[in-house]
Amino acid sequence: MKRILLIGFLLFPLWSCVGQKEDPEPIVEPVTDPVDGSADMGTRFFRRTLAFDFTATWCQYCPNMASCLETAKSLRPGRIVNVSVHYADEFSSKDADDIVNSFRVSAFPTLIFDMDPKTATYDPSVAPMTAYVDGVLKGTAPCGIGWTLEDGSLVLKVKAAEVGEYMVAALLLEDGIITQQTGVGPYYSQEAVLRKVLTGTFLGDSIGTLSEGDEKTLPLGKIPPGDSYRVVAYVQKKTNGVFRVVNAVEGKPDQEKEYRFEPVTPQK
Question: Cystine design at 65: which of 36, 109, 202, 264 (Cβ 3.0–4.6 Å)?
């Protein structure tokens, strides 16, 4: 009898832990989508979310945010356009400092969606990221955004689906920079590093009030060559007196980006 009680006493901690987890994240299912950059046979513009990831090489927990963001991007293919804004390290710049100061970022990492301070989060977690994207997709994109190449110069273009006042901005990013990262080591790959603001400011340049179907362009000039470079462009629309990002696009500066439309759902 004593032997049975002893066995039961030893197994009790194992039984009590069965099925218990520390704050499990909700399961986020991947979604399928056409390859980003295609011109789908639809009528509604494809909506992408802009994500500013405020980070630094001295920040121990910043790689966790970057990893979660990459997972969210894989779960919502083509829907998230991210920019790594570095502060007080070898990748920071006046442009980066302007963005940090504009949003009054004081904690790292911080993630902000669509340049809306109300979305700021400091917790690396995939579920809230995909939840935000899904929430945005319940609406419609009020415009499309892309660019063309004219004699080697990049020209942004915006076409409105809704009347409104618009601004458009563009940034030059660099991928695959190997460097020392606190908490990881000397061979960490920095991605989507902000290198230069290509428009007047990161807030963008005004393209005025557009009516439905109107298209406006904004010349940016020639972009520095390099396989590691890419351009991120985004458009803001004025709503209730405040400009907010309503669409974005990314791609290589030597490749044109056509307007993209939401896929047509086959009728049953």
Answer: 109
Of residues 153, 123, 28, 117, the one with CA closest to residue 79: 28
Give the contacts of 19 (CB within 8 A, at least 6 positions apart).
none
Supply the range of the domain harboring residue 213: 47-251
Pair 92, 37: CB distance under 8 Å = no
Tell me the pTM.
Answer: 0.85
Query: Pairing between strand 164-174 and 229-239?
Result: antiparallel
Total domains, the chain: 1
CATH classification of the domain holding 156? 3.40.30.10
**Contacts of residue 267, Cβ cutoff 8 Å, sequence gap at least 6:** none
The label of the residue with tokens 């428009």 reads 199
Q: Sorting pLDDT into bands at 50, 70 and 90, what band is 28?
A: very low
Which residue would you say has higher pLDDT here, 259 or 2?
Answer: 259
Q: How far apart are CA 142 and CA 146, in angstroms?
A: 14
The answer to whether position 231 is within a domain reads yes
Nearest-CA neighbor of 253 among 179, 166, 153, 142? 153
Domain for residue 114, yes or no?
yes
Span 109-119, mean pLDDT?
A: 97
Tokens read off for 94 = 């006046």
Bridge partners of 86? 55
